[in-house]
């Protein structure tokens, strides 16, 4: 599948934004974060800005962005519609939460924070299910895909929160969360790749054409000499050697280094911890962009079975 | 509504039956499909850079060719690919806007291009590559089963079949109600062992493909080499020997 930059950026940015909103909503009312009102407001604004930037970027992917409001109508059947509805609904408690944080309204903080956290989790789960529900793409139609979106969003959100808390001198608990989630994400992603590589595709050229009863099926002539929408959008293939390298980069930048940096930050503390927090968050986001690019680039669609394998 | 209509027993399921035995791969169906539909229900079917290198465009029907099997059993098979008007198509249920829908009355799967936002999720959800984006209008397009022909009372009755069916010179495309076991197409499918594509996807396609027939036994033996005619042998001695030995 073609890694459209607008979607890669959207899922990483809004994932991090929702992750940040989630942890802020849970940890702030519990008093595990800096008490400063400026900290709370800044974190909430960054979360909402990331979410909004991601959603705007996703609109760029649409052929008719001016009709986007129509996407809120089919939540009964469509995960994309559910994601849209969840995203819009989450803004309500999130904005109340922001106001509560800015004014230090502790009584309002708990319900608004928890509701925002629930909204964030539901929205990211819907995003994951958009992909996980697509049977023609075997790399996405996998039980680890939707949980993966949740895990990576919560990790990147925790990384941002740990960085911000560091600025206000209270980074211990969120750094602990981020380091733990980073390690969990590392093992989760490796397990997903192992499972994906070991699972053969359900469909073959033989089942796609129904000609398997004659023997193996080889494409002889394409219907068209030039490219087309299907080939560009759904037959994108990244070379195996590049994929292997990019996987290592994603694991290292995305999960291993941030986890290490947060561990060091907890041990060392002080000004160094602040710098390490910034490095860790930047590394996590960069690694996640690579990871998300790979989610598309490594995904294969059954329509490619009808065409010759690109060399 | 992108929820699917409730299946009712005996409901109409209009679709195509494509005979892979007789299809000669002439692309007439694809060409006439483009011709009809570019001014039909989902018009237009635009082309990008039509008069220069890398021209491409929206087609509802594309004709592939495959080699299947090896040796004497090996076959070249021409293979037209278009929307199969599936009974449980995720291309419809994933649509966030309600632009994609499946008609309860005859099972045809259509896109309302006035509502489509061009998110392209439906194209991802179709295993068969039957949906293509109109990059000029930013909306999704697909085979309409020629809904604007099959019910069209302004054209003579015998022409009320899909454009691809009416134009096929090899009579390899058949149109009818696959929900009625007594229809001509259902009988043809039963008689020839018609099958669905990628049943493992669970989309329950309505269209059926008729398998190529087994190669006949005569075709299997190598053709005999034809000798020269006596008149083609110039040397009189050799001509005489040929005559004697041919007795
Ligand atoms: S062939 Fe594809 S576009 Fe047509 S109904 Fe089936 S899933 Fe939908
Ligand atoms: S591209 Fe159009 S028809 Fe397809 S899912 Fe999106 S809104 Fe629906
Ligand atoms: S039924 Fe009509 S729209 Fe569909 S492939 Fe045939 S000619 Fe094209």
Give a short synopsis of this structure:
The complex is a heterodimer of chains A (311) and B (247). Chain A is mainly alpha-helical and 311 residues long.
Description:
The complex is a heterodimer of chains A (311) and B (247). Chain A is mostly helical. Chain A has a single domain, classed as Formate dehydrogenase/DMSO reductase fold. Chain A has helices spanning 5-27, 37-60, 79-103, 106-132, 145-167, 172-198, 205-209, 229-234, 240-268, 270-297; one strand at residues 217-221. Chain B has 247 residues and is of the alpha+beta class. Chain B has one domain: Alpha-Beta Plaits. Chain B has helices spanning 28-37, 90-93, 121-125, 147-150, 163-167, 184-192, 217-220, 236-245; strands at residues 14-19, 47-48, 56-57, 61-68, 75-82, 100-102, 109-111, 131-134, 139-142, 173-177, 208-210. In chain B, the strands form five sheets. In chain B, strands 10-1-11 form a three-stranded mixed β-sheet. The longest helix of chain B is centred in the first third of the chain and has 10 residues, at 28-37. The model of chain B has no long low-confidence stretch (mean pLDDT 93). Chains A and B meet through α3, α7, β1 and α8 of A and β3, β4, β5, α2 and α3 of B. One iron/sulfur cluster is lined by residues 33, 36-37, 60-61, 82, 143-146, 162-164 of chain B. One iron/sulfur cluster (SF4) is lined by residues 94-97, 99-100, 111, 116-122, 140 of chain B.
Q: What labels describe this entry?
A:
heterodimer; A: 311 residues; mainly alpha; Formate dehydrogenase/DMSO reductase fold; 70% helix; globular; B: 247 residues; alpha+beta; Alpha-Beta Plaits; three-stranded mixed sheet; two-stranded antiparallel ribbon; 8 helices; 11 strands; 21% helix; binds iron/sulfur cluster
Lay out the secondary structure.
The complex is a heterodimer of chains A (311) and B (247).
Chain A: H1 5-27, H2 37-60, H3 79-103, H4 106-132, H5 145-167, H6 172-198, H7 205-209, E1 217-221, H8 229-234, H9 240-268, H10 270-297
Chain B: E1 14-19, H1 28-37, E2 47-48, E3 56-57, E4 61-68, E5 75-82, H2 90-93, E6 100-102, E7 109-111, H3 121-125, E8 131-134, E9 139-142, H4 147-150, H5 163-167, E10 173-177, H6 184-192, E11 208-210, H7 217-220, H8 236-245
Parallel strand pairs in B: 1-11
Antiparallel strand pairs in B: 1-10, 2-3, 4-5, 6-7, 8-9
The complex binds iron/sulfur cluster (SF4) (3 copies).
């Amino acid at each position: 599948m073609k890694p459209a930059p607008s979607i890669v950026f959207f899922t990483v940015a809004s994932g991090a934004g929702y992750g940040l909103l989630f942890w802020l909503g849970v940890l702030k009312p519990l008093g595990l974060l800096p008490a400063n009102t400026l900290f709370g407001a800044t974190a909430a604004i960054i979360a909402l800005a990331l979410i909004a930037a991601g959603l705007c970027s996703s609109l760029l992917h649409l052929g008719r962005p001016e009709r986007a409001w129509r996407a809120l109508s089919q939540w009964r059947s469509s995960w994309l519609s559910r994601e849209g509805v969840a995203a819009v609904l989450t803004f309500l408690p999130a904005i109340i939460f922001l106001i509560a944080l800015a004014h230090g309204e502790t009584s309002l903080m708990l319900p608004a924070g928890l509701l925002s956290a629930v909204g964030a989790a539901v929205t990211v789960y819907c995003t994951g299910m958009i992909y996980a529900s697509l049977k023609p793409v075997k790399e996405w139609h996998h039980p680890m895909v939707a949980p993966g979106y949740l895990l990576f969003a919560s990790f990147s959100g925790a990384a941002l929160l740990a960085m911000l808390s560091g600025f206000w001198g209270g980074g211990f608990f969120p750094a602990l969360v981020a380091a733990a989630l980073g390690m969990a994400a590392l093992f989760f992603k490796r397990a997903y790749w192992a499972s994906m590589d070991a699972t053969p595709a359900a469909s073959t050229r033989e089942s796609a054409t129904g000609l398997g009863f004659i023997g193996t099926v080889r494409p002889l002539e394409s219907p068209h000499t030039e490219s087309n929408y299907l080939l560009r959008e759904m037959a994108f293939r990244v070379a195996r050697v590049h994929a292997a390298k990019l996987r290592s980069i994603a694991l290292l930048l995305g999960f291993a280094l941030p986890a290490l940096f947060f561990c060091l930050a907890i041990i060392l503390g002080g000004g160094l911890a602040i710098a390490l927090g910034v490095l860790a968050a930047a590394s996590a986001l960069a690694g996640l962009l690579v990871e998300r690019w790979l989610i598309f680039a490594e995904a294969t669609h059954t329509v490619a079975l009808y065409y010759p394998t690109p060399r | 509504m992108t929820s699917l209509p409730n299946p009712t027993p005996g409901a109409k399921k209009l679709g195509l039956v494509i005979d892979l035995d007789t299809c000669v791969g002439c692309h007439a169906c694809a060409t006439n499909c483009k011709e009809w539909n570019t001014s039909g229900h989902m018009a237009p079917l635009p082309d990008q850079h039509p008069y220069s290198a890398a021209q491409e465009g929206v087609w509802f029907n594309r004709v592939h060719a495959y080699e299947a099997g090896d040796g004497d059993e090996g076959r070249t098979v021409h293979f037209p690919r278009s929307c199969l008007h599936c009974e449980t198509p995720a291309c419809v249920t994933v649509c966030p806007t309600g632009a994609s829908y499946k008609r309860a009355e005859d099972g045809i799967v259509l896109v309302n291009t006035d509502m489509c936002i061009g998110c392209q999720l439906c194209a991802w959800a179709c295993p068969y590559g039957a949906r293509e984006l109109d990059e000029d209008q930013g909306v999704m397009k697909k085979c309409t089963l020629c809904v604007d022909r099959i019910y069209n009372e302004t054209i003579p009755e015998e022409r009320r079949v899909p454009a691809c069916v009416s134009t096929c010179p090899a009579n390899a495309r058949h149109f009818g109600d696959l929900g009625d076991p007594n229809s001509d197409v259902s009988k043809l499918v039963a008689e020839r062992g018609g099958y669905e594509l990628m049943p493992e996807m669970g989309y329950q396609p309505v269209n059926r493909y008729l398998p190529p027939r087994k190669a006949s036994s005569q075709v299997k033996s190598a053709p005999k080499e034809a000798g020269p005619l006596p008149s083609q042998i110039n040397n009189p001695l050799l001509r005489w020997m040929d005559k004697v030995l041919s007795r």
